[in-house]
């Protein structure tokens, strides 16, 4: 969301204080993570300041660990906040 409609400091800032460059970097990270997880349609990905949040369901704890490992390999990821839930059989 743009507040006031202008760029007073020369850097576009969202309500969460990320610069346009950080927003762009976060969007790129999200896209790369989504490509890795393309077979996991029940996982939502959100990135803010290099912190990737994963929400959704998976079939096992082993899968949670595998996904987290893959996400950490993506360039620019600072941390993974896993909110993944293992679904009951």
Topology:
Elements: H1 20-36, E1 43-48, E2 51-58, H2 61-72, E3 79-86
Parallel strand pairs: 2-3
Antiparallel strand pairs: 1-2
Protein described:
The chain is α+β, with helices and mostly antiparallel strands and 89 residues long. Strands 1-2-3 form a 3-stranded mixed sheet. Helix 2 links the parallel strand 2 and strand 3. The N terminus is likely disordered.
CATH topology of the domain at 40-89: Histidine-containing Protein, Chain: A
Note the overall shape.
elongated
Largest sheet: 3 strands, mixed
Strand content: 15-25%
Helix percentage range: 25-40%
Shape-level CATH architecture of the domain at 40-89: 2-Layer Sandwich
Distance between the termini: 41 Å
Structure at a glance:
With 89 residues, this protein is an alpha+beta fold.
What key phrases describe this protein's structure?
alpha+beta; elongated; 25% strand; 33% helix; 89 residues; 3 strands; Histidine-containing Protein, Chain: A
């Amino acid at each position: 969301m743009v507040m006031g409609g202008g760029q007073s400091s020369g850097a576009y800032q969202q309500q969460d204080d990320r610069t346009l460059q950080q927003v762009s970097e976060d969007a790129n990270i999200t896209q790369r993570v989504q490509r890795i997880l393309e077979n996991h349609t029940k996982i939502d990905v959100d990135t803010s300041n290099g912190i990737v949040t994963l929400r959704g369901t998976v079939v096992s704890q082993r899968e949670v660990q595998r996904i987290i490992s893959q996400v950490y390999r993506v360039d620019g990821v600072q941390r993974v906040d896993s909110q993944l839930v293992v679904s009951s059989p």
